[in-house]
Amino acid sequence: DYLTGSQIGISKFVSFGNKIDVAEPEILTYLGSDEKTKAILLYVESIDRGREFMDVARDVTRRKPIVALKSGRTMAGSRAAASHTGAMSGTGQIYDAAFSQAGVLRSSNMLEFFNIGKALAFQPPASGRNVAIITDAGGPGVMAADECELRGVSVKVFSDETSGRFAKLIEEGVLPSFIQYRNPVDLTGSATSQMFEEAMKIVVTDSDVHGIIIIGIHHLPAIQEDFVERIAKVSVTVPKPIVACDIGETEMALYIRSKFEKLGIPAYRSPEEAAQAMAALISYGEYLRRRGCFDDYVENFITKRDGLKLT
Fold first, then answer.
1. What is the sign of the dihedral through the CA atoms of 103, 108, 114 and 116?
2. Fold match between domain 2-122 and domain 131-310
3. Cα–Cα distance list, 277 to 102, 148, 170, 273, 287 (Å)
4. Phi-psi region of 4 (alpha: psi -120 to 50; beta: other; left: phi over 0)
5. pLDDT of 8 strictly over 90
């Protein structure tokens, strides 16, 4: 119900109860080879066949991401898990270490669980830890930058070359003189669809930028809804992850986020959620690079994504 309401597709939904004959290793093996499954979301209270789970998970995560939500992290939660399924939940540190070694991304709550899964299904992993933030509202840009750094994601000041490209557009009158472009890029309340597109064109070609967070607040008078298509058109020119945010729960906010997602860009209700999603794309990219399969994964991801657009 939650996934459907959030417009997240489900290829398979598996509940294996007390795991009498089928458990996580068998399910992961199956989903790992299922062409319709782009990312695997795994809710667990305990994992009994730990070594087998890790071997299977390490194999699967080379080809597709696994996000885990491990409950029973507290004494009360462990007690509830034992009465619910008879599960012995174990310590959080052990699960953290096992998930990290196997390339499984751990989420702390249900909202993060689904947000991360959506990002990994929609976008390729990042090749580094530095992100650019483009916003039409200063405050949300600051919030996104804070959340990024709290999660170990870098929001570096742009290079002289990139800053010079922004300055050139200001001189030409394409961008107003009062915008901020050191990173975050604050297009201010005067932002237009063209300004978003021009800013995107600059940051996607910066080799020091590995991912982009777009904060497009739809309330601004000069913003037209075509800014979504313009951003999406630029985003597919490079294999860098893009996530979006439009704050609000009105019909228009829901429409803008839905429009982003129909064009393959995961969209979130808050800057913090967008930053959390980007952090997961960075973490998964780092894991794939350690395993030596990052380039193959991204090439396969882009090939499948482009193939879907042709059908």
1. negative
2. yes
3. 20, 10, 32, 6, 16
4. alpha
5. no
pLDDT in tens, 52-74: 999 999 999 999 999 999 986 65
The CATH class of the 2-122 domain is: alpha beta
- Non-local CB neighbours of 266 within 8 Å, separated by 6+ positions: 115, 118, 119, 122, 123, 243, 244, 260, 277
Q: What average pLDDT does range 116-139 have in this prediction?
A: 96
Q: Does pTM surpass 0.70?
A: yes
- Which superfamily is assigned to 131-310 in CATH? Succinyl-CoA synthetase domains (3.40.50.261)
Average pLDDT over residues 202-212: 97
Cis geometry, peptide bond prior to residue 65 (ω within 30 degrees of 0):
no
Q: Name the DSSP class of 114.
A: H
* pLDDT of 88: 47
Residue tagged 């483009």 (tokens)? 134
Quickly tell me which residue has 């829901």 as its tokens: 254
- State the pLDDT at residue 11: 83
Q: Which residue has the higher pLDDT, 279 or 304?
A: 279
Q: Is 51 exposed, middle or buried (0-12, 13-18, 19+ CB in 10 A)?
A: exposed
Report in angstroms the alpha-carbon separations of 204 from 14, 29, 32, 159, 305: 39, 36, 31, 13, 18
Domain ranges of the chain: 2-122, 131-310
